[in-house]
Amino acid sequence: MSSNKATQLQAIASEIAHCTACPLHRTRTNTVPGEGPADAEILLIGEGPGQREDALGRPFVGPSGDLLEQWLAEIGLRRDQVFIGNVVKCRPPGNRDPEPDEIAACAHFLDRQIELIQPKLIATLGRHSLNKFFPGARITKTHGIRGVKRAGSRVYLPLFHPAYILRNLSAAPAAVADMKLIPRLIKRLEQRLAEEAAEQAPPPATASVDAEADSHQLKLL
Ligand code: URA
Domain 2-200 class? Predict the structure, then answer.
């Protein structure tokens, strides 16, 4: 099943490689579809490829990527254990922000990646990724525990973008503290899902004594 998912993710990556839906295709060197296990529990979503990402066709391989890897190490993870993607799959020239129509044209790729991977936790990195799941939210107010939201069997966690932290080093401890929420949030989600499943399950065997008594009474009536 997971190798089937990997094949489908690869098919999306091939579609991205041929995409001409927005002007970014004209200036890209490589598309950057994202990378990681097809059954990753954690999906990290950045904004868009920078210069190095565009050159290599891989997400977060420049200075932001180095910092992201350090953050992952803080929670005992390597980058190949999570899926790393972006809101737009082609580099905006000069590292400008992606335009709303570019984001809109690219959105279905990320949506399909999420649908396939079914991560337990989605962490947003940066404003555009944040606003996909938290419309209108501001990272300085929403990052970390204050912004956490659950929808069904998934948790969303707004994180600072590593590039922001590289420019604002005083926020680095807060960024690491936010990152450290990830394992706790996944554990709590799993507990809640188990509790909710138990609440909906049929009564356990010990209750059958009463059920048996009831049916016996029915027979007696
Ligand atoms: N910044 C992003 O948002 N994404 C990358 O892939 C690299 C830097």
Answer: alpha beta
pLDDT for 81-122, tens place per residue? Answer: 999 999 999 999 998 999 999 999 999 999 999 999 999 999
Using the atom order of ligand 1, give the atom closest to the CA of residue 125. Answer: 3
Question: What is the CB < 6 Å shell around ligand 1?
Answer: 46-50, 53, 59-60, 64, 86, 126, 163
Tell me which residues of the chain have a pLDDT lower than 70: 1-2, 204-221
State the pTM of this model.
Answer: 0.90
* Percentages (nearest 5) of helix, strand, coil residues in the chain: 60, 10, 30
24 CB-near residues (< 8 Å, 6+ apart): 88, 90, 91, 92, 93, 98, 102
- What residues does each domain of the chain span? 2-200
